[in-house]
Each structure stands twice: as structure tokens, then as C-alpha cells.
Amino acid sequence: MKYLCTLFDFNYLPLGLSLYESIRLYFGDFHLWVLAMDDRTYAFFKENSFDHITILSLGDVESKDVLVAKGNRTWQEYCWTLSPVLPSYVLTKNQNIDHITYLDSDIYFFSDVEPVYNEIGKNSVMIIPHRFPDRLKHLEVNGIYNVQMVYFKRDEIGIQCLNRWREQCLEWCYNRLEEGRLGDQKYLDVWPQTYKNVCVLKNEQAGVALWNVEKYKIGLKDGKVLVDDNPLIFYHFHMFKFYAGNIFGTGISDYGLNYSALKVIYKIYVKQLIKVASRYNLKLKNLNILEICNMIEKRNFYSYSFLKKVFWNILLYGFVVLKKVLKIARRSLLKVYPEA
To answer: What domain of life does the UniProt record list for this protein's source (predicted)?
Structure first.
């Protein structure tokens, strides 16, 4: 039995549900604790029945020390703060389970996860490196490891490591690099040197993402996505946004990548997102024109439907052109009528 936990709000609900569906396919026996980050998400899970899921509300995990932290940081930073709070809560409240694995809600499993757990073996903790290519090695200053899948065993070392991480994140978890800290993830840098029995995952089919995918050859064989001829275990859809009308943004160009090379991965994922959104009649976020204009300019905007893609590209490129025209017009007016 594998014990898992994740957290997300209503904006991430399609991603969280897709994660759940992939877990059902590739984890065997499991139980998943989901922390609903808002009332809409909690209500959704109460209104719909899901096997092997326990839904938690913020009120369940918000002890006094957690509420203090909530009051002195942004929403994004608070979500990061809860990365160790949630698995700590689950282990405390469920004394019968021997481990817990925290999962980011924007990852998706493509094949059997057993190779990951086989590598963990008897270790107390498991973390996954970013595995930056040389071109992006400078990003390692923000963290050697990524909080996407983190495993803790209920033993002395596992609990000590998790408790310390919880304390650190409650004290300081901000979106800035300061005194060797950044968010929830840079604390992980010292774990292999601080604790015994820390598994730094070597399996490079787990944790493929925008920041390392250029290192690998991506392919498709018999319906399976391959990474260097081995089955992709999971992909981290960092920066992914899913909108009404099956429109999606990827963040691919932010890393200097080409969508065509990754299309095989994203097509499977978007197909799954569309399926869960349709099944549960989810009302997705509508397009923010300014945000989408920026995505179009960066070439991070895509549509699952070819016809919709043509329509939206014509419309949105029009907005991009209009935006540039307005900027030029404003500069011209300022030359004629300079600001006081």
C-alpha cells in the first residue's frame, strides 16, 4: 500500500483530478489525502465520490502555528508552506501508516511507479534533483532538488527530517532568495549531508520537466511515452495553465524549448484534462486577455482543437498587434504632450 498526499485549489482541480487518475493507473493499492485549499474544492469532493481519497479542509491542518504563518505571507507562499505541514498532519493522524509521499498536483504519471519505490527501498527520505542541463545550471542557486515528490518513512530519521522541514517553512517560506533559503525547496539542499538514509533518486524517468527535458530523447512506442528508450514515469507540468475552451499555456518558451519536441507528452495530458473537466462539468477559468497576449508573444499558447487554435490565434494575435500599436501611439503622444 502506498500512502500519498497532495494539495490544490479550484483553479488546479482539473490537474489534481488528472493526477488522481494517473495514480489509479500506476500505483496499485494506494490511499490519497487531498487538502482542499478553498471551499469550492472541498465542496466538490464532498459532492462527488472518489475511491481511496480522504478530503481535508484547511481547518483540519491549520493549527495555531500554521495560522501565524498564514498571516505573514502570500497565498502562493502559504501553499508552499503547507508542503511539509500536510504530510506531517497525515502521519500524526494516521498512526497505522508507515510512510507518506507528498506529490505536487501538477505532476502526472505515465507508467508504473514501482521503480521509484524499489530505489527508495529501506531509506527514510527520498528527494528528486532538478537535474539541470549545463545551459540551466545557474538555476541550481534556487534549489538542487524540487519539491514535486518527497517521501518520508515513519522512522526516527524520516520524522526528524519532516518535522524540521515543517518548522523551517513555518518560520520562513517566501518567494525570494535570502540567506540560502528560497520557498520550501532550498531547505532540501542539505538533507543528504544532514541525515542518513536519504535517497537522492537516480531514476531519470521520474521528474522530467521543462528545466531538464532537453537532456533526453522523447519518443512514443506502443502508446507509451519514452525517455531515452525507457518508459516515462512522471512529468512535472510546471507553469501549465488550463482555460475554458480547451486552451492551454505551457511555459515551454520560457525555457527556450520547442513545443513540437514535447507535443507527445502534452497531448496526452491535455486529453486527460479535457476528459475530467467534461466528466464533472467543471467551469474553467476564462481567458485573461493581457495574460494570453503575453503568452502569445512568448509562444506559450496552444489549443487542443485545430479550428479553435486558428480562431484564437487570429483573435489573440490581433490583440498583440493592438497592444503594440497602443504602445507606439502612447510614446508618440508623450513626445507631443510630455508629462508634467
So the answer is: Bacteria
Superfamily for domain range 2-203: Spore Coat Polysaccharide Biosynthesis Protein SpsA; Chain A (3.90.550.10)
- 302: closest CA among 318, 316, 290? 316
Neighbours of 259 (CB within 10 A): 14
Inter-residue contact 277 to 319 (CB < 8 Å): no
pLDDT the model gives residue 157 = 99
- Contact assessment for residue 198 and residue 231, using Cβ atoms and an 8 Å cutoff: no
CA nearest to 272, candidates 6, 21, 12 = 21
Segment 270-299 mean pLDDT? 78
Q: Which of 88, 89, 80 is nearest to 57 (CA)?
A: 89
Sign of CA dihedral 288, 310, 315, 323: positive
* Sheet containing 30-36: order of strands: 53-56, 30-36, 2-8, 99-103, 145-153, 125-129, 198-200
Number of Cβ within 10 Å of residue 286's Cβ equals 10
pTM attached to this predicted model: 0.88
| Measured distance CA(215)–CA(206) in Å, rounded | 13
